[in-house]
Write a structure and sequence with these properties.
The structure is a single chain. The chain is mainly alpha-helical. Helix content is 80%, strand content 0%. Helix 1 packs antiparallel against helix 2, helix 1 packs parallel to helix 3 and helix 2 packs antiparallel against helix 3. The longest helix is centred in the last third of the chain and has 29 residues. The relative contact order is 0.17.
Length: 133
Amino acid sequence: MTSAVPATSLILWLAVALGGALGALARYSVSIAWMPAQLKFPVATLTVNVLGSFLMGVFYVVIVEKAMLAPVWRHVIMIGFLGAFTTFSTFSIESLHLWQSGHWQIAISYVVANVVLSISAVVVAIVLTEKLV
């Protein structure tokens, strides 16, 4: 006996998949854009994490708090797109590589920058968006 997946669930799965595919492509584009710089500091990952956190704050207000978009957009944008766009795993491995290669000062500043700037970005986005919408 097989159980059918409700149409609503299937739509949400597809919404996450669509958003995730677009977020992954956007993430890859940022990496490619920063590649020629050949910096020791992982600017591309920091950029997507801070920008993604800011956008998460904006869409949290628009979708969750104010319900200005249909709930399915939470799955497309917040779970799919921003989930794929931001990257904790890359941040983790880059931090480890910096530490292991003897660049512990850069590693520590990278970890602090990611955490402080990302949390600050989401807070600023929420405050600004609540005032503007």
